[in-house]
Amino acid sequence: MATPLVVSEVAKSFTMHLRDGVRRPVVANVSFSVKAGECVVLGGPSGVGKSSILKMLYGNYGVDEGQILMDHDGKLVNLATAEPRTVLEVRRTTLGYVSQFLRVVPRVSALDIVAEPLQARGTPIEEARAHAAELLSKLNLPRELWSLPPATFSGGEQQRVNIARGFITDHRILLLDEPTASLDAKNRAVVVELIAEKKAKGTALIGIFHDEEVRDAVADRILDVSAFSPRKAAA
Amino acid sequence: MSTLPLLKVNDVSKFYGSRIGCRNVSFELYAGEVLAIVGESGSGKTTLLSCLSTRLMPTSGIVEYHMRDGQYRDLARMGESERRFLMRTDWGFVHQNPADGLRMTVSAGANVGERLMAVGDRHYGNIRATASDWLERVEIGVDRIDDQPRAFSGGMRQRLQIARNLVTSPRLVFMDEPTGGLDVSVQARLLDLVRGLVHDLGLAAVIVTHDLAVARLLSHRMMVMKDGAVIEQGLTDRVLDDPREPYTQLLVSSILQV
User: Closest approach of chain A CAs to the CA of B168, in angstroms?
Assistant: First the structure.
């Protein structure tokens, strides 16, 4: 089986045209790979570019240089240069993402938000909802909230909806941006368990975890992102 | 996923005398894809939409459409009657002002049924049944089927316009500021409805909007226009999260946070 994710010599900078075109380098020479069943945690201080790397991997940040190679249905796709519709196709079937915050869609219930990624892959709605219900109860989201749109939920409740949505599919690569940030100990433990299940199934995981306890429980390897600092590369 | 684009746009320009409407626009649209065209007033969004939907003839360039028979047809070379048939059956056009897309003095049911008759449906009972089914889908009470849209609120009229357009199962829908002029609560309901329908029906859509939140919610891809030209395009969340061009950065940074 091919390595699910290979990142090679990726560089990224922002040019801020509204600030007289100031160019702010973010990362340079980012190279690593993630094996099936492995969980790589991005480490390093705040502002070093951990989230930017995750966003480049997901395709919502552009890439200046380098390659992001993913094994998508047996074909190698370079996400750094892929067409938008290819990126969408990769996201539908290969690449999942649990963001820090839920983007709430007006009027859509928590249950349907969680079920949606499965539905998008062709699972019948009732089956997708059953699976969503299973995950939400595992994450201890009170049943009376399932039929409500999450706009009025607490931070922790929204994050659990977000986690369920990210974990419901069997994407081969899963990106995790601080999925446990606003959870209590009991639910953090559930997330650790969900991650362990994914690893056992051969999913490649890349995550950011500030919580040391969670990080130690899930990480196979910690990648120090300050090694990719562009200032260091220039020196 | 279909491998052939539904719409092929090649180097389309439109001049009004010496003034530029839009220039050198090229892109391809695939089945199931939603493309948002954003930019401020006067940037050429609506001109481009009109050129794509044959409401205006481009000054230069070619727009080709993948017909149901598998052939590509150059829209500018199509006969008037064929073009009108396409507009009434395989395409939809949702106007910003519902009064431009509805017949205000016939009943809601007839507004929906009219397009069915255009594709040859003649059975009154079937037409009425389909019309009431569609009214329900756009959340208009079936008891309003005999009322004229004049008696409807702005949001209801817009939903009726959408039902009228979608009843013939079009493959491509053009929308010009579909939520413009509506209250935010009404907007949210309409957006959710459009989002669901586009998803369920696998529609391709081109949506002109100046509202980046609408583009984020509905579209897969985005084109940013300025002075008639497309200055930046790509995946919607890439353009919004990592805008490259000065003008796009200005647009994105001008959104008010609530």
Answer: 24
pLDDT at residue A235 in the model: 45
CA distance B217 to chain A (A): 8
Q: What is the ipTM of this complex?
A: 0.89
Between CA A125 and CA B238 the distance in angstroms is 29
Segment B3-28 shows an average pLDDT of 95
What residues of A are in the B interface, CB distance below 8 Å?
14-18, 55, 59-62, 84-85, 87-89, 105-108, 120
Give the residues of chain A that fall short of pLDDT 70.
1, 232-235
**pLDDT at position B25:** 97
Strands A173-177 and A204-208: parallel
User: What CA–CA distance (Å, rounded) separates B23 from B45?
Assistant: 11
Task: List pLDDT tens digits, range B199-244.
Answer: 888 899 999 998 898 899 899 999 999 999 999 999 999 999 999 9
Q: Kindly give, in sequence order, each residue whose CB lies less than 8 Å from that of residue A93, ignoring residues fewer than 6 positions away.
A: A72, A73, A121, A171
Residue B186 CA, chain-centre distance (Å), reads: 18
Chain B nearest-CA residue for A19: B246
pLDDT at B258: 57
Q: Which residue in the set B192, B195, B220 is minimally distant from A88, CB to CB?
A: B220
What DSSP line would sit under B107-174, residue for residue? -HHHHHHHHHHHTT---HHHHHHHHHHHHHHTT--GGGTTS-GGGS-HHHHHHHHHHHHHTT--SEEE
